[in-house]
Sequence to fold (620 residues):
Amino acid sequence: MDSQRKEKLLIQEKNAREFINSRKFKDAEKAFRSLILLNNNNSDYHNDLANVLKEQGNFSEAIIFYKKAIEINPNNLAVYINYGEALKSIHELDKGVQIIKRAISLNPPKNIKLVALNNLGNIYRQKRDSFNAFENYKNALKIDSNYLLTLYNLGLLYEDICDYTSALKFHRKIINLKKNFSYSLGRIIVLERYICDWNNFYKIININKQNLINLYSIGPRDSFFLFDDPKFDLQIARYFCLNNFKRETKKLKLNRKSKIRVGYFSADFKYHPVAILISKVLELHNRDKFEIFAYSFSTSDDDFYTNKIKRVVDNFRDVNELSDEELVNEVRKDDIDLAIDLMGHTEFSRTSIFSLRVAPIQINYLGFSGSMGAEFIDFIIADKELIQEDEKDLYTEKILYIEKSALCFDDTLKKNYQEFTVCKKEVSPHKFTFVCFNNNYKISPEEFDIWMNLLKKVEDSCLWLKASNELAKNNLIKEAWKRGISNKRLIFAEYTNLENHLKRHSHADLFLDTFNYNSGSTAVLSLLSGLPLLTLKGKSYHSRMASSLLKSINLNELIATNKNEYEEKAYQLATNPEKLMKIKLKLKSYLRDSDFFSSASFTKELESAYKKAYDLNAMK
Fold:
């Protein structure tokens, strides 16, 4: 290569890398394509172009250039690392493992091996293989015990297995090493709520919300229990999508058929709130008009709900092992008209497949209580209590309204249960039992202050809570003592099966809802069990779920509009047996009435919403 041409290449290469540094990826792509035309045997140019394509969500073409880069130079370690990351992003996990292991087999220098081991741990963690994830992280830390990314990933791994003490230990170690490591700052906030450690509660709620996005990297679902602010929820969701789900989306044409094909997507087709609520709807869909598919991402063994869903849908697909491309092709081959994402931005979701578009119509429903902030999700299922007419601009999705409550349910759970002796023994010494079976992270000091006031004012009363984990239980006991309430007034419900859980509601008197993040499935189960639930209506989808249910069954008297009213209503119901009994009898009459809590009626409404979305798309 003559010196003049070499100098020209160096100038173009410098410009291309400046485009990358300034995140001008389109310009960088153009520059590296030109460089490859000038020198097609440069492995680094192919690697850099692949990285730029990956940044723009064009993974399929990026992989072509990674493969070419390796073909040119099989010892280019950087390519293996980047290629492995791309494969992880599109859920080609086994291939990702092979590529990273190949890099490690080349005996790389310590700094490269460190990154490779960390990335291999990440792929195993995404495969939900905790043992191999831990082994690779441990080996990475043998090279550098203070490597921040591995310490962070170990924190996430311990969180996966609910070892919150170890998770916090790793995140706090990171903050000692680097004060503003944003991801750990965010996880500490979340983990403290998981264990009901409220020492920093008021500091957090007064933090500038933009900093919570930029500095603390708070995720979409975490904002639900931290704040009741749909504008903030939307901002976080949009930011999350922009950073994680940039893909080349293909527009799909609706192919009219004799039946509308509906695909439900979830990792939770098992003993899980989503499956408990949706399984009856899947069974009741009108098979003359709809064909129902279920796509499962679960790694769990089949249980009662898995087998039930397999029985009641027309087609059940176990797709967890499929890559994004394979899964998208599978769904498109099934010619699905409406894809219902039952997960949103929750753990083990496959949002990336929706960003590629698996169906002409894509709908956010049930598993995520807010907007996904994604242009590739077309609709959200709601009612006019959850999302009012003048609030539509707080959602990137169009609203498909259900007439009553948008929360589905299984009306076969309406039964008269026998006494549950274990629960009776636990709560019988008390005259009045308040209960909140919500996950403990939904509880903040603001609810707890009111609950403790009620225990002080209502003689011989107790509060029955779920024990999400031992740390949360111990911290809640400490917080009660701080407010002058003995631990004898707190009772903790242990994990049990659904039937026993439903039975034990009969030993409580009043369910007290949490504020920012309401009960959803827990509210449904409470009401189906005949236990009245008191809620505080908020501003967001996630802070209106219980009021949506209560309004749909004409129990508006159990909806408070402010905290003082919430406390006063709870006190009046706890000290006025006739008033409470009147509400209980009213609820029980609704449970007997076929117009209320009817899965068949709800399913018809849901099908009408689906048909509306279908017709709107067909008119395009």
